[in-house]
Amino acid sequence: MSGSIDSSWPRITFGVIVLNGEPFTRYCLRSLYPFAHQIVVVEGGHEDTRAVATPDGHSIDGTLEASYLLKDGNPPIKTN
């Protein structure tokens, strides 16, 4: 591949499961975006992750908030 995405290629639905991965999630989502038909982000932890999650099971490092910002296009995801 030469840096651009061939429009004849099928788009793929990606699933990303994350807990406390804010810096990595941004890079991951941006790298998937050009190939994606849909990206489903599941953020949160099992009840056994209480020590590293909020009382309601979400990330404590801002992963959820960063995911919403990317979803809303802020900062914008740039494609080739």
Order of helices and strands: EHEH
Shape descriptor: elongated
**What do the pLDDT scores average to?**
81
Quickly give the structural class. Answer: alpha+beta
Characteristic key phrases:
single chain, 80 residues, alpha+beta, two-stranded parallel sheet, 2 helices, 19% strand
What does this structure look like?
There is one protein chain. With 80 residues, the protein is α+β, with helices and mostly antiparallel strands. It has a domain at 1-6 and 19-44 and 60-80. The chain has two helices and two strands, in the order βαβα. The protein has a two-stranded parallel sheet with strand order 1-2. Helix 1 (22-32) packs parallel to helix 2 (63-71). The longest helix has 11 residues, at 22-32. The radius of gyration is 15 Å and the shape is elongated. The two termini are 12 Å apart.
List strands and helices in order, with pairings.
Layout: E1 12-18, H1 22-32, E2 36-43, H2 63-71
Parallel strand pairs: 1-2
Q: Could you provide a short overview of the structure?
A:
With 80 residues, this protein is an alpha+beta fold.
